[in-house]
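[Q] Does anyone have a clean structure-token version of this?
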Amino acid sequence: MTIYVDTREHPSAIKKILRTFERNGVAYEIKKLDVGDYVDPERPNIVVDRKQNLGEVASNLFSPHDRGRFWRELKRANDNGIHLVILVEHGGSIRSIEDVAGWSSKYTHVSGRDLMERIYQVHIGYGVDFAFCDKRRTGKEILKILGGEKYGSS
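[A] Here you go.
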């Protein structure tokens, strides 16, 4: 298995992810992707887009600047038959879309409930799945999503 990693992923932010790939014998190439951040070129219809936390998701879904870019990417995925999985590295008690309702942040006016509702709109309207994990498990979760259960164990 080889995974393509988008060039816009910051090297310091993905160092642990790439080490996980290496430990599991998974090759990777850094290249520009039109949709998402991680894809197995042998299964290009499933793509993972990594978000560092719910604050980034809120910015993507509510900020006028981010929102247009993000919604264009959702449409591009949908138009090309790509199943997009948004992997949110939030951790803690956030393990599902329903858990987002209890989230709050001092950095945004967006409530957890509003964010949850918008996430459901994206999920239903575009068929996008949202997965949540702790930053320490991001590499494993990407492998699990892209490679099936072969990489699902700890």
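[Q] Thanks! Anything notable?
[A] The chain has one domain: 44-151.
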